[in-house]
Design goal:
single chain, about 375 residues, alpha+beta, four-stranded antiparallel beta sheet
Length: about 375
């Protein structure tokens, strides 16, 4: 029939990129999610009630210990200091008067013109006046202290955060008002959890923790940054940042919690890492990676992106000699640097699909091409 439609031509095989399953000596790592915190953090609070008058630093700027950060309206507290000084002066005048009176009464007592009771009263009046001076001076110190709190200064060198309260607002009304936080960021604390097994495996990282002060850390990180090992063969702690980049400075362990968490089987540990460029910030997340001393010898590896995950099982798409796909279920070993160790399911030399997995199915023909260099990276 001339009107019959011709069948459409078959679709060409899907273009996919493949990489060979290879045997390699693979470095192994312990990898944990970490949070970063300042070496020291100081909450800056308004300790007296009043209107915030000025902010003397730029949000997010570096500050020095003693730098003025905020001022609070001080008129009320300056007046209180003046009143307290006047009270001290009055108490001293009263003391001097009572001392003269006591000296006069002692002379009169010797002549018999004054009773012993009157002399005792004069002595008590002098002691009371001296006590009033002590009370007035204590009140003056309190008033001066409150006045000093109207100038809020940084207690340490570091980076001051964004101001949480702006000038003109009432602060200190219901307790110390948090104004900002200053953090020392030349070194940052890296907090993460290690499994009990990994804690024992990396025992070289935890020797003599009580001696690991900041000066010791500086020496160790300088040694690690030049490619050496730290004390006791410590390989250091590597940070993988949120974009997948490797932070250029290695950290060192400085503390471990007192106990293993029985519910998770992990222990919280802490490392210090240098931050000379200010790239790292408190609150940031990263992956803390510790290189194991041992390495996997001649293991079968594939790129991690070749894995197909379905309900907790993993497969790879192997391209056979006839350029047809066969899905092979695989068992996984550790993963490292974008490569996945495969313990069973493939053999050396198998071609696995690394790009175009969404186009393939079991038994489908494909057009396999070697993985380009720019994709492999």
């Amino acid at each position: 029939n001339a009107c019959a439609k011709k069948a459409p031509p078959p679709r060409p095989p899907a273009l996919v990129y493949v990489a060979p399953v290879a045997k390699r000596d693979v470095p192994l790592y312990t990898d944990s999610v970490a949070t970063l915190d300042g070496y020291d953090n100081a909450d800056i609070r308004a300790r007296v009630r009043g209107y915030l008058r000025t902010q003397r630093y730029k949000d997010g700027a570096r500050v020095k210990a003693g730098d003025l950060l905020f001022t609070i309206e001080a008129t009320e507290y300056a007046a209180a200091v003046s009143s307290a000084r006047a009270a001290v002066a009055r108490a001293k005048v009263l003391r001097d008067h009572n001392r003269v009176q006591l000296d006069r009464d002692q002379g009169l007592r010797k002549t018999g013109m004054l009773s012993q009771q009157d002399l005792d009263n004069a002595s008590s009046n002098l002691a009371d006046a001296q006590a009033q001076i002590t009370t007035a001076e204590a009140a003056l110190r309190t008033a001066e202290l409150s006045l000093s709190y109207t100038e809020i200064r940084s207690p340490l060198d570091g980076v001051a955060g964004l101001a949480l309260v702006r000038a003109g607002n009432l602060v200190g009304q219901d307790g110390p008002t948090l104004l900002t936080t200053v953090s020392q960021t030349d070194f940052l604390r890296v907090n993460f959890a290690l499994s009990e097994v990994d804690y024992v495996r990396h025992r070289e990282c935890f020797t003599n923790l009580d001696k690991r002060d900041l000066s010791w850390v500086k020496k160790q990180t300088a040694k690690l940054d030049t490619g050496g090992l730290g004390e006791g063969g410590d390989p250091g702690v590597q940070l993988i940042l949120a974009d997948g980049s490797v932070y250029k400075h290695l950290g060192v362990m400085v503390a471990a919690n007192r106990q293993i968490d029985a519910t998770t089987g992990t222990i919280t540990v802490q490392a210090l890492v240098a931050n000379p460029d200010g790239l790292l910030r408190p609150g940031q997340y990263a992956h803390a990676r510790i290189k194991r001393i041992e390495a996997a010898q001649k293991e079968l590896v594939v790129p991690e992106k070749a894995l197909i995950s379905v309900q907790g099982t993993y497969s790879v798409a192997v391209v056979g000699p006839n350029n047809k796909v066969q899905l092979h279920r695989v068992e996984l070993g550790p993963a490292t640097n974008g490569m996945q160790i495969i313990t069973s399911g493939v053999v050396e030399g198998d071609r696995v699909v690394v790009e175009g997995l969404q186009k393939v199915s079991d038994g489908a023909p494909v057009d396999p091409q070697p993985q380009p260099t720019e994709i492999a990276r």
